[in-house]
Amino acid sequence: MLRPPNILTIAGSDSGGGAGIQADLKTIMALGGYGMSVITALTAQNGMGVAGIHAPSPDFVALELAAVLEGFPVAAAKTGMLYSAAIIRAVAPVLRERAFPLVVDPVSVSQSGSLLLQEDAVAALKEEILPGCDLLTPNRLEAELLSGVSVSGIEDACAAGEKLLDMGVRAVLIKGGHMPGDIVVTDVLCAAGKEPKILPQAKVDTENNHGTGCTLSAAIATGLGRGLPLPAAVKEAQEFLNRALRQSYNPGKGCGPVNHADGMTV
């Protein structure tokens, strides 16, 4: 029997099950990986919003990470909600010494508009996590926050991507879900020393899009952990998310999640 690759997610928990650690683990399993987790924060949330956030001590988050790395060979990892500068500084030294690909989803604001990254954590993220990461996956607002470039279209996304590459990121996928467009969503993949790749896909008309960023980054990490080159891992992840969006539904009140169980069906 072929063993699935061990994929690690370092992120916050979503009590509603649609985003964060829960979305990551569902995605990793759906795409053939074995999921492991380092939980950086607990969120009390549902489809209507985030009611509260409780973070463990940075030392405990570092202990979670040390325990996973001691017990398992990690094929790839992703970070999501890192929440505070102290937590970022607790995990960054270990991640800098990693021997596996790292995808960074710079989670800063929830789908409902709640702040998921403390203000002093933005500088720490730029200084401690971004340099050397294999792929950064910001949406438009996150790309603007990190690069300082206003993004309203493909040319702007390419310019922001170049700025982020200059900060030491090896590749960046700027997601087009928050950009104008009624029919097509266009992501832009920038890698050091290469021309940007324009990656359009059909827009899915659904309000159940909770956890899309978490799902995409976890899917890319899983592809990398299975040995796919970056462009192929990105393509597989985009297709998985698009299918999961087409099969999305609302299990409760407010914004529903993508359907990870049906993301593999055509």
From TrEMBL:
<keyword id="KW-0808">Transferase</keyword>
<dbReference type="InterPro" id="IPR013749">
    <property type="entry name" value="PM/HMP-P_kinase-1"/>
</dbReference>
<dbReference type="Pfam" id="PF08543">
    <property type="entry name" value="Phos_pyr_kin"/>
</dbReference>
<dbReference type="GO" id="GO:0005524">
    <property type="term" value="F:ATP binding"/>
</dbReference>
<comment type="pathway">
    <text>Cofactor biosynthesis; thiamine diphosphate biosynthesis.</text>
</comment>
<dbReference type="GO" id="GO:0009229">
    <property type="term" value="P:thiamine diphosphate biosynthetic process"/>
</dbReference>
<keyword id="KW-0067">ATP-binding</keyword>
<keyword id="KW-0418">Kinase</keyword>
<dbReference type="GO" id="GO:0009228">
    <property type="term" value="P:thiamine biosynthetic process"/>
</dbReference>
<protein>
    <recommendedName>
        <fullName>hydroxymethylpyrimidine kinase</fullName>
        <ecNumber>2.7.1.49</ecNumber>
    </recommendedName>
</protein>
<keyword id="KW-0547">Nucleotide-binding</keyword>
<dbReference type="GO" id="GO:0005829">
    <property type="term" value="C:cytosol"/>
</dbReference>
<feature type="domain" description="Pyridoxamine kinase/Phosphomethylpyrimidine kinase">
    <location>
        <begin position="14"/>
        <end position="259"/>
    </location>
</feature>
<dbReference type="GO" id="GO:0008972">
    <property type="term" value="F:phosphomethylpyrimidine kinase activity"/>
</dbReference>
<dbReference type="GO" id="GO:0008902">
    <property type="term" value="F:hydroxymethylpyrimidine kinase activity"/>
</dbReference>
<dbReference type="InterPro" id="IPR004399">
    <property type="entry name" value="HMP/HMP-P_kinase_dom"/>
</dbReference>
<dbReference type="InterPro" id="IPR029056">
    <property type="entry name" value="Ribokinase-like"/>
</dbReference>
